[in-house]
Amino acid sequence: MTVKTARKGRVVVKKEMCKGCMLCVEYCRRNVLRVSESFNKMGYHPAEADESAECTACMVCSLVCPEVAIEVYDDEDRSE
Amino acid sequence: MKLKNKWPKYYKKDVITHYCPGCGHGIVHRIVAELLEEMELGKRAVCVNPAGCAVLAYKYFDIDMIESAHGRGTAIATGVKRARPDLFVFTYQGDGDLSAIGTAETIHSANRGEHISVVFINNAVYGMTGGQMAPTTLVGMRTTTTPSGRNPEYDGYPLHITEVVASFPGVAYAERVAVDGPAGIQKTKKAIRNAFQCQIDGLGYSIVEVLSPCPTNWKMTPRASFTWITEEMTKEYKLGVLADRRARE
Ligand SMILES: Cc1ncc(C[n+]2csc(CCOP(=O)(O)OP(=O)(O)O)c2C)c(N)n1
Ligand code: SF4
Ligand code: SF4
Ligand code: SF4
Question: In sequence order, what are the beta bridge partners of B210?
């Protein structure tokens, strides 16, 4: 049996490339992204993905990211 | 799981730029790199980059680059394009570079209708040198050289240089867009695509002015900078197509 879900994708933030500008966090309507409490090597608090949130793979976060730091994956095996 | 946004081919792999967090240059760089790939221009593209925050852009794009003296970008691009019309030649310039020290080159290259494309980043300040007033600074806007706000009686009015060149017959396409959110970023990409296509089609000079955030010198968060562009900057600089002579024979 499959469970109906809005989840279609997954995002990976490349932690060491992120400058913590928060644009992705502000624009993700699904609240997938949040600011990490830890620092990266540049001294920024990078964005991180909440794995339990439902990412729709809409790509808004990667569109606004000035650092090309977000990879958006499409879940092809999703249950509809 | 399939990766939806592959790294742009003509942007150096996993590059970390020197730009401040939330800077519009990073967003427009990515757009340009994506277009060079999508329009299959990368192998014959030459970008002339400016003095300004984008002075190190030659370290980021994986195409042929020429770093210009301040403001001279379109003069260099003219030479390259006239010597090698088979190449795709564009400049990437800030508002200080293009509309202050480079005003003569901008006006005359546009008036000659050189077959080049211009990506013009207007952030209303001299970013690199610490946020001084630029010709494009808004009336009342505080900068390090207008600490009580730009006063037109003393400092003059904001310069609309894209409107000036848009009136020249040699200009095939001129548009103003804004990096102020997801929709604005998509429109920016479309406008630069149109400008690049003009050169491919041999139609003449094309320019896209991008209202672009400089959160550091504006002393705002990146998100607030987007809102400021939408609510304040676009009042002075109206968005839209300023010239479109693509249909002429
Ligand atoms: C001949 C010359 N004069 C002055 C400078 C100093 N200078 C470097 S960048 C710059 C202004 C850059 O502002 P802008 O073009 O708006 O680009 P931004 O840094 O905002 O992206 C100035 C005045 C220079 N490099 N060369
Ligand atoms: S792809 Fe869309 S839903 Fe997923 S994290 Fe990015 S903005 Fe949020
Ligand atoms: S938009 Fe990019 S640089 Fe900014 S916080 Fe998100 S991942 Fe980091
Ligand atoms: S000073 Fe402004 S234009 Fe320059 S890198 Fe920083 S935010 Fe960008």
Answer: B121, B177
The predicted pLDDT at position B209 comes to 99
pTM summary value = 0.97
The whole-angstrom distance between B238's CA and the closest CA on chain A is 22
Q: How far is CA B115 from CA B71, B177, B210, B231, in A?
A: 18, 21, 20, 34
Angle at B58 between CA B73 and CA B105, to 5 degrees: 5
The confidence score (pLDDT) of residue A75 equals 83
Number of folded domains that form chain B: 1
Q: Domain containing B71 — which CATH number?
A: 3.40.50.970
Of B27, B182, B223, the CB nearest to A66: B27
Residue B93 domain-assigned (yes or no) = yes
Residue B70 lies in domain: 25-248
pLDDT category of residue A80 using cuts at 50, 70 and 90: very low
Domains of chain A: 15-75 (3.30.70.20)
Q: Rounded to an integer, what distance in angstroms lies between the CA atom of residue A45 and that of residue A63? A: 20
* Cα atoms in the 13 Å half-sphere on the side-chain side of B56: 11
Atom from ligand 4 closest to the CA of residue B20: 6
> Is residue B158 in some structural domain?
yes
**DSSP helix/strand/coil, B226:** helix
Tens digit of pLDDT for each residue in B125-180? 999 999 999 999 999 999 999 999 999 999 999 999 999 999 999 999 999 999 99
